[in-house]
Queue: 2 jobs
Job 1
Amino acid sequence: MEPESAPPFGDMPADEFRTYGLAFVDWIVRYFDEINSIPVLSEVRPGDIRNQLPKAPPASGEGMEAILADLNRVIMPGMTHWNHPNFHAYFSITGSAPGVLAEMVSAAFNVNCMLWKTCPAATELEQTTLDWLRQMLGLPEDFWGIIYDTASISTMHAIAAAREQLTDLNIREQGLAGRPEVPRLRIYASEQAHSSVDKSVIALGLGLNALRKIPVDEKFQMRPEALTKAIAEDRKGGWRPFCAVATVGTTSTTSIDPVAEIADICAREDLWLHVDAAYGGSAAVVPEMRHVLDGCERADSLVVNPHKWLFVPVDLSVFYTRKPDVLKRAFSLVPEYLKTQEDGEVENYMDYGLQLGRRFRALKLWFVLRYFGVEGIARRIRRHIELAQAFAGWVDEDSDFERMAPTPFSTICFRAHPAGWADEDELNRLNEKLLAQVNATREVFMSHTKLGESYVLRLAIGNIRTEARHIEKAWKILKDKLSELCKPGGKHDTRN
Ligand SMILES: *Cc1c(COP(=O)(O)O)cnc(C)c1O
């Protein structure tokens, strides 16, 4: 059959949309069904995908049949399957089926929810779902929420609000450059904090030197007494401390900063306290994990990413603050053509951030929360934590492996350390090689981090499809690859 191509004017005809709509839903169902039997990692080399794509765009329409065929032929071989149950790198995430369906509807609506007027339902669903999520996390009633795309952007907005709170400096009007009367501003985060804090100070004109990294203890948690000391030193040295970022679930080890103690310091020193709970925050949905957010009720702002561990497709980051008025002061700028009659009685989300246009992201959060329910979500997160604790137990019991950090959530930091290996450099090379060989199977995908001078493997659990058998498989591959590396002659190989 000749491929259909687009009609001369207008959109795809309804019949064709129905045919391919059903075909693509079928395609997705099969993808989810078969994902267990495909490798999580692709085999392509850099350039392989581009080389198969035409250098110029198609002059005339090609028909969905051709597009579908190339999705299978060209795109699929170059996919890293983040929705795969053996994806354990970075943080393991899920675009769940209700979330996928919501994305489809959201694209069909194609609204821009910059103002209440430009889509009342999107604005009010955002208000409602964020209040639901606030309750699920046990956060106080005066936490006001907004959806941004990513945690990095949420944190940038937090620091912008903290800066705006320095009203005497009037940075919104005057800027920072060329003003000898403005002291150097200082912000604090632990040395384990996410690089988005660094990027924020770059973007906000504070400069990387404005960020002072506070040392951590042996559990990779910020040392509050070191924070107190740093602030005192800085005040003496002419800096103006204005913000601290605490992390609940750091990216490297998922350590939890002592937020309550940091909140005391921030209250005493009059600093804005932002909590980065991008990954770890979701665990608070589980009643017995609620404590991970202890102290966060006193934060000025907090970010949690439903696209990380709440089964919502990328991207959706939730930012809460108890000072939306300060955030609004930092960013609100309403040109004449965006003024509406309802401005006095509604929330216009464009007033609370850099971006004007906003996707209807709340729809997918709503679908996911309703489909699984609070208990269903808690049950799944609890399972991930149990699987991680089991894996941590296997590491602890095996004389060839060792754990490199506590496992408060569902991410395990560990390394191979066979008997008789003492040299750190050799251990680092062994583990780097082990990770490469494990990932070369393409059956599982893990990542690494550096703790002190040690090269450390990370196994994250957070995909909705991950079961005990997947974790067992990952462990078996690790054990097998390690014994291959360490068989006679193997140790020599790692030195090359
Ligand atoms: C993943 C992560 C981020 C960054 O998240 P994005 O949404 O990709 O910007 C920030 N902080 C922590 C602690 C994270 O784990």
Note: Residues 91, 150-152, 194, 196, 247, 249-251, 276, 278-279, 305, 317 surround pyridoxal-5'-phosphate (CB under 6 Å).
Job 2
Amino acid sequence: MDIRKFVRPNIRSLKAYHAEEIPCKVKVDANESPYSAISNQQSAISLEKTLQALNRYPDPEAKVFRRLIAKDLHVKPENILHGNGSDELIYYVITTFGGPVLYPVPAFSMYGIISQALNEKKIGIPLDDNFDLDMGKMLGAMKQHRPKLIFLSSPNNPTGNCFSTGKILEIIKRASSVRHQSLVVVDEAYQPFSGKNEFLPMMDKFNNLVVMRTLSKIGLAGLRLGFLIAGEEIINEVNKVRLPFNVNALSQAVAIMALKNKNPVRANIASVISQREALRTALDNIDGITPYPSDANFILFSVAGADRIYGRLLRKGVLVRNMSGVIRDCLRVTVGTPEENKIFLKALKDILRH
Ligand SMILES: *Cc1c(COP(=O)(O)O)cnc(C)c1O
């Protein structure tokens, strides 16, 4: 039989997420932390018990993890839902509430991919010239399409900036009105690097607000652990579609370890923020490079002939993310260690000189 024709049409036209492993010396393409959030001695001792208990299923409710997160954020464990990365939570939220799904573009690609996989209508609304929300277009689209879900990632990937607080707030307010009725998911994957915490405190006031965070960008991408923070009503509904054992025992154990001793994570974040500023200044001083302001752990920059520059950087062993398909002549570089940043900058300068 013809399997391609057998597949649902929305899946047939979907492309599998491109996660090719490109060999390189300096990997600054995926917004990972250059440092691990766990020390060696710490891990060897604490993991022994978990390894001995791997014959058992993990805690389906991730109780300890959720309790520790809740305590940090001054909410109740009932306000937290754990996911196998925030990717999985995006899947669950769209599964629970359905579309249309509205989001500004360029944005994190998973909002669109998951909407299509679940056969929900998706609407991407272009950002303004400052990569901020275009309120005329956003409010117009809310009126026209009546989205059930609005995703706003702030700081935004791949542009790096936070959207204006007032604009996000305006969207949450409009979305909570009887006429509109949308849930707003503020995706704060990069929140630790912006230091801003403006939307969690608004949870009490707006029951249509969901905040999403992750351990991925602060040194634990390999764990696959994200979490939603929302009112209990929302958490209870989304929890119905969660697979029972979605976060495995090793990930829970390591996350708990990292949450009990936050020093490595805190040091990582501080180092990435200071390196980000140094990297931006250095990029700004290179003729032909325009870096954009960043509140995240990466920097978007424009350079003439970005496709070619991307290839030449790779040949020198430096892997960045080529964004030129999304934003003309733009590349995205993750903040690395001081050594990695130096190698990247030298390679870039060499390329531009010849
Ligand atoms: C990286 C990223 C995520 C995905 O996080 P995981 O927890 O690793 O699934 C979510 N949203 C944005 C905007 C991201 O850049």
Note: The mean pLDDT is 95.
